[in-house]
Structures are given as C-alpha cells and as structure tokens.
Design goal:
about 270 residues, alpha/beta, five-stranded mixed sheet, 11 strands
Length: about 270
C-alpha cells in the first residue's frame, strides 16, 4: 500500500479462499495434499477471512484513494432430484463452498444457521467450529469497510445425498466423465444429463451465475459486484495460425446474458 497505494486504485485481498482451502484439505490437489479433512478446510477459510479483514482495516486506516474487496469462486449447488435428502445435501455443500464465505464477507459474521450447518458437516470428523469473539469483531468491522465483491464463476454442481466412503478423482487431463466428488455428510456430485459440460466435467450453466447474483442481492447488504473471472477450457486445434473459438464465444455470450438479466433485476454489477 505504501509503494503503490497512490497509483493502484482497486485491490483484491485474496482470490478464491474456498478453492485454496479445498485443494489443500479436501481434494488434496494443493500442498500439504491432505484429503477429506473438511474441518481443516473450514479453519483455513476462517483464517483467510481474518487475514482479509485485517488488510481491509489497514487499507482504510491509511486513507488511500481507492477501493478494496475480495474475490470468491462461487458455484451454485443444486439437488440432482428434488428430494428432501438431496436438497439437504445441496444446502450443506453450498454452505461450505459459498454461504460460509459470503457471510464473513458481507453479513459481518457467520449467521447461526450457517454455523449449524457447518457443524453438522464436521460431526463426521467429530469436530466443531467455534470462532473467537475478537476474530468475529474484526470480521464484522471489515464487512462494513469492504467496498466490493468479486465473483469468479465457471460452473455449478448437481448433487445427491451421500453417506458412503469418501471418494475424489480429479479430471486433470480433460478426459470427460472421469471426475468424482463424493464426501460423506456433504454429498455426491452428479453430472446432469440435460446440462452440457466441458471435457474437464465443468457444467456449462449460466443460470447458476444469475441465481448467485440474485441471491447475493436478496440476502446480503448491498455491495458493488465485479465478475472477476469467467471462461471455459477446451481442446482447441490450431488451424491456419488460430483456433475455431465458437465454443468459448458461445460460453461467454451466455454468461454475459446471465449478468445482463441480473442487472435487469437491479443487481449492482460493475
């Protein structure tokens, strides 16, 4: 801030806290490469939100002429079929991946129903999550000072109730249909037959972005929103020095239309 605060006018404290925490302690893709330790992922996300809050407070204390926020990877979670058990599974995964961080960023703390669902998930590890009051006061203060929310959106997920053994297979090579995500006490992701997906098994579901934008508007204090990331991976072939990019163009067009539809509903997207 001292070196660049007079020139850099827009700041993001942290990118994708859930992606980082899940990669470290749920999927095992990032160091320290642990799997299925959801309680550790929750603790890491909380620590990142405390760090975000400290940085926001510091930035504001310096009186710099700019704005500061955070960018979350937010991906909708829907029941694959509308049954009570599947609806609960979708709600629990959504709380872990979205609501927990949105509460800390915008609501000024974790709402009681959010903590209840987080601790329901953690009971499978015989763990609980109980943040201390000093950290909650800091998070509360920073929520009022945070200027904007960044959303990184690529896909949504469809899930069913799952009470079996934990299983995760990461589709790293774009071999369609090879990914598996099944966490006991959370849910099992299923590819919906009428929703297209990329070769990396990421659903192409612009409605999920629209739904997320409307949800934030309806359930949280108003903040300007920026779509800080969006896009698609594809196996393009180089032809005459370029690529036939129709798939990516169509993806971006669909998601821009979803944003425009949300703006028509008075969502403040910049």
């Amino acid at each position: 801030f001292e070196y660049f605060g007079d020139r850099v006018k827009h700041w993001i404290t942290i990118k994708d806290p859930y992606t980082m925490a899940a990669g470290q302690y749920i999927t095992g893709l990032f160091p320290p490469n642990h799997q299925f330790a959801v309680s550790k992922a929750v603790a890491v996300m909380h620590r990142m939100m405390v760090a975000h809050s400290r940085v926001v407070r510091l930035y504001k204390s310096m009186g710099l002429p700019g704005s500061i926020g955070i960018a979350h990877r937010l991906e909708g979670v829907y029941p694959i079929k509308w049954t009570p058990a599947n609806t609960l599974a979708a709600d629990l995964e959504d709380t872990l991946a979205n609501e927990f961080l949105l509460d800390a960023t915008l609501a000024g703390g974790y709402r009681p129903e959010t903590l209840q669902k987080i601790n329901r998930i953690l009971r499978y590890e015989n763990k609980t999550f109980a943040p201390n009051e000093a950290e909650l006061e800091l998070i509360h203060e920073a929520a009022g000072l945070t200027d904007f929310l960044g959303i990184n959106y690529y896909a949504s997920h469809f899930t069913e109730f799952y009470d079996g053994e934990n299983r995760i297979v990461h589709n790293a090579k774009g071999e369609k249909g090879t990914s598996t995500f099944a966490i006991r006490g959370i849910g099992h992701r299923i590819q919906k037959s009428d929703v297209p997906a990329t070769d990396w098994d990421w659903s192409v579901f612009p409605s999920g972005l629209y739904d997320m934008l409307l949800r934030i508007k309806e359930h949280y204090p108003a903040k300007p929103i920026f779509i800080t990331e969006n896009g698609i991976g594809a196996h393009e072939q180089l032809m005459d020095g370029g690529v036939v990019d129709d798939q990516r163009i169509d993806y971006i067009r669909q998601h821009l239309n979803a944003v425009l539809d949300a703006m028509d509903e008075d969502v403040d997207v910049r």
